[in-house]
Amino acid sequence: MADDSEFARLVSLACHDLRTPLATVHGFATTLERGGDLKPPADRYVEMINAASAQLAELLDELSLVARIESGRYDPTLHEAETLELAEAAAARLGEDRVRVTGSGAKLETDPVAVERGLAALFQSALRHGGLDSVEVEVDGAEIRLSRVTPASAPVVLGEDLRDLGAAVAVRLVTRLGGSVSVDGETLKIELVY
Predict the structure, then answer these.
(1) What pLDDT band is residue 2 in, cutting at 50, 70 and 90?
(2) What b/e readout covers 150-171, taking b as 16+ CB neighbours within 10 angstroms?
(3) Which end of the chain, N or C, is surrounded by fewer C-beta atoms within 10 Å?
(4) pLDDT at position 141, please?
(5) How do residues 43-84 score in pLDDT, each as one tens digit?
(6) CA dist., res. 93 & res. 48, Å (int)
(7) Could you tell me the end-to-end alpha-carbon distance of the chain, in angstroms, rounded to an integer?
């Protein structure tokens, strides 16, 4: 039986191999969509194929990232980033009406692309699994606090109850970068490291 590291490498390899056919599907859907010659309902179907292929690409990115983290092969691409800007960019992925960000940030060296995606996944998980219409995010230096996390959704958001891939990957990412993710009452605390 393969060990966890070998399994993580197999997952990473599968993600890599799936990208080529997925890129083909996405590329042809985009070409058809840009052509503008499609009539209803074909135009809507191509739009749905394009959106679904983009969503699959995001899932493959998450699987690949967690496989690299779990196998000890994650080598973060570090750049200077500002925590308030990361939180705002993550919130923008979900819509300002759903995630309201306030506070003041701090500059740090991190993997900004992965952290932004991870924050968006944590915000989305709190919304989805908490049955919430909106959440408040307060940035205080390197700490990002999200309110409110319901008692039922907390284990999912923390990646303990594995029902949300994005949240589970985000928690592992933040931890691998030296930070932490915890729940205090109804507040999710994401501590990033300078």
Answers:
(1) low
(2) eeebbebbbbeeeebbbbbbbb
(3) N
(4) 97
(5) 999 999 999 999 999 999 999 999 999 999 999 999 999 999
(6) 18
(7) 40
